[in-house]
Write a structure and sequence with these properties.
This protein is an alpha/beta fold. It has ten helices and ten strands. Strand 9, helix 8 and strand 10 form a beta-alpha-beta unit.
């Protein structure tokens, strides 16, 4: 199982702070990191966690399970292998929406979707199809049709396989909802790293979809996201890292890993005015409803 290496320098060429944030205080009750990418290493080789180290660090602070998410064929294969190797890991498989235009341009999108469909049924350790969806931030309008084609194909795979649908939505809220509202969906829909406003959160909550919150809900400038969180019943709230990305405050910009989920959970409890242990317990129950038990 090889890992992708992420650059340790920013867009301005300056070296970023690659030091690992300290271990947070353990949670009073276990929770799950419902979306991470252990196959993407962040920082220098001598600083990056191995999967074993990442899982061990997470367990020490009460993060007892992880959903490893695929974004392309290789990453989905890695996710399945990780889920089969580590008992506290399950997998999702997919083509990231930004992969779809590239594959369509080379005439290989249909073949890639067929391989995702095959992997979705290869093991009971595969619990979801995603991350799939639409991304209008990195993909220009010329690629939007391919993204939607891929998104709809993933929805059908998830529905037919009885798996959770894990959605990537970046700057595409209206089109995401349009597709979901005119498509036959699987029973479980998860918005990864929810980024919509309060109105969108209400729309999703009314349909029984799960909204997963990541590090951005802790950012000082994210009051609109916290307002969205307040619109969602705790029974439909999940938490995630999207590691190695989106590190919670006060360590924004530094390497992320599953052991930092407690920072997000504490923020969720504070925003909702709920007891921390109750929040952990309800989030864990919601996670099992979304992805099953393991």
């Amino acid at each position: 199982m090889s890992r992708i290496k992420r650059s340790a320098t920013g867009e301005d060429g300056r070296r970023r702070d690659r030091s690992r944030p300290p271990m947070p205080e353990p949670l009073p009750s276990p929770v799950t990191d419902t979306h991470c990418h252990m196959d993407i290493a962040d920082g220098d080789d001598d600083e990056a966690f191995s999967p074993e180290e990442a899982l061990a660090a997470a367990a020490k602070v009460g993060v007892d399970r992880v959903v490893q998410v695929g974004c392309d064929i290789a990453g989905s294969q890695w996710a399945v292998q990780a889920a089969q190797r580590y008992p506290n890991v399950v997998a999702t498989v997919a083509l990231h929406p930004n992969e779809a235009p590239r594959l369509a341009a080379t005439g290989t999108l249909d073949d890639a979707l067929s391989e995702i469909d095959r992997m979705a049924g290869v093991s009971e350790r595969v619990r979801g199809v995603g991350e799939t969806g639409l991304d209008h931030f990195r993909t220009t309008p010329e690629g939007h049709a391919a993204q939607e084609e891929s998104f709809r194909a993933h929805i059908e795979i998830a529905r037919r396989r009885g798996l959770a649908l894990v959605i990537h939505d970046r700057d595409a809220h209206d089109d995401i909802l349009r597709v979901l509202d005119d498509t036959q969906l699987p029973d479980r829909v998860v918005f990864h790293c929810f980024s919509g406003d309060a109105a969108m959160a209400r729309h999703c909550a009314e349909r029984g979809w799960f909204l997963s919150f990541a590090g951005p809900v802790t950012f000082k400038n994210a009051e609109s996201l916290r307002s969205a969180l307040r619109e969602v019943p705790l029974e439909q709230v999940l938490v995630e890292t999207d590691a190695p990305f989106l590190t919670p405050h006060p360590f924004r910009g530094r390497p992320n890993a599953s052991y930092l989920v407690p920072l997000t959970v504490r923020s969720v409890a504070e925003v909702l005015g709920r007891d921390l242990e109750e929040t952990c317990s309800m989030i864990q129950t919601s996670t099992s409803r979304a992805f099953g038990s393991w």
